[in-house]
Design brief:
This protein is an alpha+beta fold. The chain folds into two domains: 1-107, Conserved hypothetical protein from pyrococcus furiosus pfu- 392566-001, ParB domain (Alpha-Beta Complex), CATH 3.90.1530.10; 124-245, Arc Repressor Mutant, subunit A (Orthogonal Bundle). It is 59% helix and 8% strand. A five-stranded mixed beta sheet has the order 1-2-5-3-4. The model is unreliable at 8-19 (pLDDT under 50).
């Protein structure tokens, strides 16, 4: 392991999670793994990072960066939380050494990371839904356990999971423009199309991308698709009903033909008997 220097200071903002932290160390920023693909946030605003970097240079690192104590396979310390701060320091400051908190290996790192992001990084509904789904899948938490761990209501988590399930359902078949629209929709907007079929969701996303982004507009779209489906089903039913009725009438007609033949044979029989008496 690389040689790290312990420091006595602690971060006051970390006191509510003391059971998860071991110690505060001085770490070279270049030794921290800043792989964007491993982070919860979908994208980062460069101007925002520059402003954050300037604030850190002026006031110091007021919020902690969390790392695992042991090196990863790439020889760097895996980042648990504080990615945005670490990225700002790395890209836009001359700071070489940062203070970091080591996280116990037995801790649920994903939960700590999500909690820190929710509280401090203003994630979009898209990012929240995706990250909550990933954490639930990785941890096998129930909705109630997940809500308790991130200090949110059960209803809030359920809505985010509905959002995530819709994303999982249609992201892979969405065009780049549709995917961009999806990333900007709120959970409330997504909920308005939750009961539509997959192809109808895609159609709705396409319409939303054209400017129909208000919840009222999206609900109207959803109602329109449902109405079209009902009308289509009714037409199919009417078609089926007509075919069935024709079949029934043909069977009745066939029965009448059979009865007519039977009656004609009976008439012929009696006429033959009358003819024999006459002779």
């Amino acid at each position: 392991m690389k040689s790290l220097r312990k420091v006595g200071e602690s971060f006051s903002s970390a006191t509510s999670h003391n059971q998860d932290f071991q110690e505060v160390l001085l770490v070279p920023i270049e030794d921290i793994d800043l792989d964007v693909s491993k982070n919860i946030r979908d994208s980062y605003d460069l101007e925002g990072l520059k402003e954050l970097a300037k604030s850190i240079e002026t006031h110091g690192l007021l919020e902690p960066i969390g790392i695992e104590k042991n090196l990863g396979k790439n020889g760097k310390y895996p980042l648990v939380f504080g990615f945005r701060r670490a990225l700002a320091i790395s890209k836009f400051t001359n700071i070489k050494i940062v203070r970091a908190i080591t996280v116990l290996s037995s801790s649920n790192k994903e939960i700590i990371q999500l909690l820190e992001n929710i509280q401090r990084e203003d994630l979009s509904d898209y990012e929240l839904a995706k990250s909550l789904y990933q954490i639930k899948k990785a941890s096998s938490f129930t909705i109630e356990e997940l809500a308790r761990n991130i200090d949110k209501s059960i209803d809030w988590v359920k809505k985010k999971m509905v959002h995530a399930n819709i994303l999982n359902d249609i992201e892979d078949i969405s065009s780049p423009n549709q995917l961009n629209t999806l990333k900007n929709l709120t959970t409330q907007q997504i909920a308005s199309i939750s009961k539509l079929a997959k192809n109808e969701k895609i159609h709705a996303i396409e319409e939303i991308g054209k400017g129909k982004s208000k919840v009222k507009d999206i609900r109207n779209l959803s109602y329109k698709f449902k109405k079209e489906k009902v009308n289509s089903s009714k037409k199919r039913y009417d078609h089926f009903d007509s075919k069935t009725r024709i079949k029934e009438l043909k069977m009745q007609l066939k029965s009448l033909y059979s009865q007519r033949t039977k009656l004609n044979n009976e008439i012929a029989k009696y006429e033959l008997e009358l003819s024999s008496y006459s002779s």
